[in-house]
Write a structure and sequence with these properties.
Length: 441
């Protein structure tokens, strides 16, 4: 790895504390990593329905975007028009040299009204799965990537008593439609995201989230509107319980359709590091990941999604070292964080890991182009330590709708013209594609 930001004293202390905690890593770090990935390792790019498809009008998120007040910077609108252009996107994934494609099925399209299932939309996703096979891509399918039908969130979302059973019913339909032909199933995307954001989003943003869902409930004349990634802090605990039961019910429903399909969920994992004595690190880990990593023990794999690290002393999170690389929002990006997150998740869950998201939101594509190989070198090192990693899926294939931040953050391997929807691969896309073709970093 050649791209470490220069560390100041504080950063050095943090880094050496992390190394002391992982002596095997420290020893391995001295050696050049074996650049070759195992045969069959999956190389992919990810999208998510609401972020790319456009006009997801029956979803909870669409409803929240198109009102005042709203926490959303702008509405998703046409997004990347992937509902029509999905085949173009599959062509790009293939042409880059990747071997898998992660996408999500939009529950709001499959079940736009409670109990009303759309065969035409199930067929739509079936065509995407077939399109993957026609191009030699392994379809990696997320059954729920944050968004739910509006009716679901209007009855309390994941906090409602029948939420797990309703989700399982939808998963059964999707599994019957496409389960036989997909490579891996992810029930939920980052069900722990609000636990992570708890300490990151400033109080005014939480206030705005609360105001947003309160307004939605008022518009619909319902008691409570709760969505998976937009909620008031007081709903987070009940949301977690519902999501946990939801995952288990979904896993059972999918397995009942196809028992040998690998099923898991994806977890947002910050590379938490300890600095000094009595670091808060383990407490943070227990809160943000503890319950989910326990649940993952019964899954076939765990999806790890990493974007950053956090260094904790006994008082709180330390600022990034001076000169660190930063993303669009000013947050530090540190390439070895991927390896740290993967090692940790596996050490607790004990199941194979799929890197289901990793990337950087930046307008500086040279940063992305440096970041990808540096992070992959670290990932390979962790694999050489014995951690089973099934594949690496980059977030994202396209510059897309980044939730409350709208279209400002650019995570894509491809830029997207917001008027013509033309996609243009960036140089970093070729970097990842080259690694995938060589199956070596
Ligand atoms: C993750 C989400 C994904 C995307 C990236 C940047 O938290 O799973 O949809 O927004 O962050």
């Amino acid at each position: 790895m050649t791209d470490f930001a220069p560390l100041d004293r504080r950063g050095l202390l943090a880094a050496s504390a992390a190394l002391a905690a992982a002596p095997a890593f420290a020893r391995a770090a001295a050696k050049r990593v074996d650049p070759n990935f195992p045969k069959g390792f999956l190389w992919g790019a990810a999208t998510a329905g609401h972020q790319v498809e456009g006009n997801n009008t029956a979803s909870d998120t669409w409803f929240l975007e198109n009102q005042q007040p709203t926490v959303f910077a702008e509405p998703s609108g046409d997004a990347c028009n992937n509902l029509e252009l999905w085949a173009t996107d599959l062509d790009i994934v293939k042409d880059l040299g990747l071997t898998s494609y992660r996408f999500s099925v939009e529950w709001a399209r499959i079940e736009p009204e409670k109990g009303l299932f759309s065969q035409a939309m199930l067929d739509h996703y079936k065509r995407i799965v077939e399109g993957c096979h026609a191009r030699g891509l392994a379809p990696l399918v997320t059954f729920n990537h944050f968004t739910a039908p509006r009716w679901f969130s209007a009855q309390g979302g994941w906090t409602a008593a029948d939420a797990p059973q309703l989700f399982a019913r939808y998963c059964d339909k999707v599994a019957r439609a496409i389960g036989a032909d997909i490579a891996m199933a992810m029930t939920l995307n980052e069900p722990n995201i609000l636990l992570i954001l708890k300490g990151i989003l400033p109080p005014p943003v939480w206030d705005m989230q609360r105001a947003t869902v309160a307004k939605a409930a008022e518009r619909l004349g319902v008691a409570k509107f709760v969505s998976a990634n937009v909620a008031g802090p007081e709903d987070v605990e009940a949301l977690q319980a519902g999501l946990q039961a939801g995952h288990k019910a979904a896993r059972a429903a999918i397995k009942a359709v196809r028992g040998d399909l690998p099923v898991g969920f994806t977890l947002s994992v910050v590379d938490e590091q300890a600095a000094g004595k009595n670091s808060l690190r383990d407490k943070v880990r227990a809160e943000a990941y503890g319950a989910w990593l326990e649940i993952a023990k019964d899954d076939d794999f765990i999806g790890v999604q990493n974007y950053e690290r956090a260094v904790w002393n006994d008082k709180g999170r330390l600022p990034a070292p001076e000169g660190a690389d930063r993303n669009w929002s000013g947050t530090e990006v540190w390439a070895p964080s991927l390896a740290g997150a993967v090692r940790y998740a596996h050490s607790v869950a004990g199941v194979p890991v799929l890197v289901s998201e990793h990337g950087v939101g930046t307008d500086d594509d040279t940063l992305r182009a440096r970041f990808i190989p540096a992070a992959l070198e670290g990932l390979k090192r962790v694999m050489d330590e014995g951690v089973p990693v099934l594949g690496y899926v980059h977030w994202s294939l396209l510059d897309n709708f980044e939730w409350i931040f709208g279209y400002k953050p650019h995570f894509g391997l491809c830029s997207v013209d917001r008027t013509t929807f033309a996609r243009t691969p960036k140089p970093s896309a070729r970097v990842l594609g080259g690694i995938a073709r060589r199956n070596a970093v």
